[in-house]
Amino acid sequence: MANAEPFADRATRMLRSAPLAAVLVLYTLYSALPFAWIATMSVRTTSEISANHYAWPTVWHWEKYRAAWFDSNFGTYFWNSTLVVVAAVAVVTVLGAAAAHCLARYRFRGNRLVYFILFSSIIFPPQIILISLFQVMAGYGLYNSRLGLTLVYIGLQLPLTVYLLEGFFARIPQDLFDAAKIDGYGDFEIFVRIVLPVGMPAIATTVILNFIQLWNEFLFAVVLVNDPGLSTLPIGIRRFMGDYFQDTGMIATGMMIAVLPVIVVYAFFSEKLIQGMTAGAVK
Amino acid sequence: MKGVDTRTAAWPTLMVFLLPALAVYAAFTAYPVFRTFYNSFFNIADLDTARYVGLDHFRALAGDSTFRASVVNTMIWSFVAPIIDVGTGLLLALCLYAGVPFARFFRVAWFTPVLLSYVVVGIMWLWIYNYDWGVVNATLRATGLGALAHSWLGDTHTALAALMVTHAWKWAGFNMVVCLAAMHSLPSEVLEAAELDNCGWAAKLFHVVIPLLRPTLLNLYILAFIGKMKVFDLVFIMTDGGPLWATETVSTYVYKRAFNWNTFDLGYPSAIAVLWFLVVIAFVALLTWLFRQKDRLEF
Amino acid sequence: MFKSAPSARLPALAVMAALSSPAFAEQTVTMWSHWPDEVAKRTFVEERVKDFEGANKECKVKLQFIQKADLYTQAKTSVRTGQAPDIFWLEPDEIAFAQNGYLEPLDGIVNMANLEDFAKRSWTYNGKVYGLPVEAYTVELYYNRELLKKAGVALPASMQLDQAGFTEMVKKAVAAGITPFATGVSDRPYPGAYFLQEMLLRKLGPDDYKALLTGQLSFKDPRVADVMTWVKQLVDAGAYSKSFSTLKLGESHYYFHTNPGALMFPIASWYTGRAFVPPDKGGQPKDFPLGIMQYPAPTGAKCPECKTLAVGGSYVMYSRGKNKECAGKLLNSMATVENGNKWMQGVLLQTGVRTDPAKIQSIYAPYFRELQERNAQAKYFIGTPLHYMAGKCADAFSQVLNRAFPSGQMSVGDAAGQMDAACKA
Description:
The complex is a heterotrimer. By secondary structure, chain A is mostly helical. Chain A has helices at 7-16, 18-42, 46-51, 63-70, 74-105, 111-120, 127-139, 146-169, 174-182, 187-198, 200-215, 219-224, 233-243, 248-268, 270-277. Chain A contains 15 helices and no strands. The relative contact order of chain A is 0.13. Chain C is α/β, with parallel strands linked by helices. Chain C has two domains: 11-135 and 312-355, D-Maltodextrin-Binding Protein, domain 2 (3-Layer(aba) Sandwich), CATH 3.40.190.10; 137-310 and 366-423, D-Maltodextrin-Binding Protein, domain 2 (3-Layer(aba) Sandwich). The chains are: A mainly alpha, B mainly alpha, C alpha/beta. The interface between B and C is medium-sized, with 26 and 33 residues.
């Protein structure tokens, strides 16, 4: 939205509506202050925090990040999260894109049925697969392993990925495909050389969406993994809170470690992230 | 164009594209769903031995007061909370649509909570609600309203509402962005004609904006509704269903019965999951159908 | 109480020892323990493991400390998959693990002669013993001597008030701006019920109290109603803190001894685990005027000298573990009178392992003497309510008697009705 109105005019107009300005400022504080509060606590020691929960850090205890990373295992949790989530997102993107392309481009019997089955599982409550997945994973020796969790994550995000990519791939102009076919491209070349490059913005969107959702996933991670050495970040933070609930400062540091990657990416790619996260709702 | 048909392909080709995804779907969604249905007729205290009990679990569910409480709570949450989420989102979008300076900054800032995990949000709000030093009570005391200071998560009357507020804090930005996108895609003269440069013009809001955005708002409502029917993480971290089952949801109850109680039985929680699965499907179908009656909303 | 060397006592062990020649493959035992935030207990366990590793080169131990709630969830999930740790921590209210065949009986693995009888009984199912009862405790009523003075109350020589006297003390404390009880229940299913349960035990006597816990006696029994009505009066008078529902167990300790401070703390004798550590680690302040009084005797008490004695944290062995041999040796190595004494001396807490209290020496010896004095005349009832309850009844106990009733959110009639609905046989 390019607004040509000069800045000064807008500012004047805004000043006219003081209630609006108040709402803007208040809501910004409301959504940002809790986060800022945690950020200040993350560089204060617990005894400093107990003395005053809202004080500005006088001494910046950056070493707490080091301590959380090495002594409190957050480094391990971080590594586990990265490994599981990156692998799952990579695989689900490839599988999902292939299936979405197939469903969007080719006419065959049962096409819409397959699409409907995949798509409708988006609304399934997770409990319907939680307990039986636990049994299945135990049966195949995949319980308590990062590989098992990765596979489950691929399955979890697949329907949404197919749904979003199908919608986008279906809008790629048919002419492109006809021309490619005339040039002698085979079906797989079309997928690799036409669909993937043209669909890259949509693929990036689903990658972001899947990444954030899995990075924050909790329920399956808590049921399917029990070894503290294999836990992902959300589980690690919660465990740390259980073990050392009085250590408010260190919990805050751990929370910041979990949040920082997301925030850093957000700072650079905020539009893309917003687009990714809302992709399911705006069609 | 003779011989060029990019709309058909041989079955083997189709299968190469489709089969891996279908295999994953079959193994990690379809099969577990059927397995859960199957489980619900058994008593499974151990993975290797299951005892057939027929419909016993479903009969027991009828008399399970905790299950009843969890259904009521989840329903309240599913119907009420989306109104808060979507309503806040809409109002925020209206503010930004009025063309305020730094609109982009506000949009980015307000969206941030959407990116945080429930664990982080949950712990953050546990502290915010803390009786002795939490932000809420500290603010009340500082403004001379100390008498209103309260154990927000410890009181059966306020715990569920407190969780809903937290939930809305996380999701309002999401709804704001979607509403804003929908407003920008409307023919601009319609909204400009309404001269919306203020947040509080109730009449215009209800007579112009809401009708125009109706499809988007309903879509958001259904999305939020589905999300709330599944709600688990936040409850698990903040209240674990307490006090006195006041925040128990179906999801937390299933989890507790399967993995927290010392009954070890996986059959009964499977029965709850099955019943709830059917309820969710029925409600989503019903809502979609109801809303479609007027708008042919594509969902 | 000392027994001579464990030579001929356990043939099974001798066989095991013979098998584990140097040629035998090295085993790594995984072990999960609660007590990540309780330094003394943690140190005790770490030292026992170290001693054991030193004496048994073929066994390595991977020891992890996990908070109880998470440990239980993870144990309950993983025992069904064959991937639970070889040894893990449980309390006897989780005897269901044994009933479902997930635990290895310890008879023949651990020297039973070194365990106290009451502790063995707590872990017995079908005639076999399933847990190594490292921790045992009585339910005590700690108080702050100075705050008691400040509230203007003096205790009788018996250290036991009657119902009226106790009520008055609570009211005086509230009037002086002092929170009477420091309890917090946010992460535990039982501490909120400690006071009520001890009152019920004294009022009903052991037999009827047991009948109540096992669903044979109604919570609507007039004697039960009397006690609950009285406790409800105390609750309404402000006996528990406002943050009762959201305070965690560890935080409630801090609430009692440091900030803001409370008159009394009805808690088990494992109070020491979190309190007797340096203040910067969350322990009670140096020179904290800690006292132990008797729980009051409710009017018409059948057994005013009754008291709960229970087995707490214990180590159990997973029946499908792959390193049973080393795991068994580790457990047996912990079950000695010498180690029982080390526990008592280090943690200042009772144990289910046999001990020789005469040998206890510690800077906290006066505390330990006081604890023993309070227990000198006691008639013990073995086990806490949760040791007798399961499933729905246990859940109701946790939600109703532990949380809602003491926080004043439920009437006596409602609470009794809900308990009967969930527990009545």
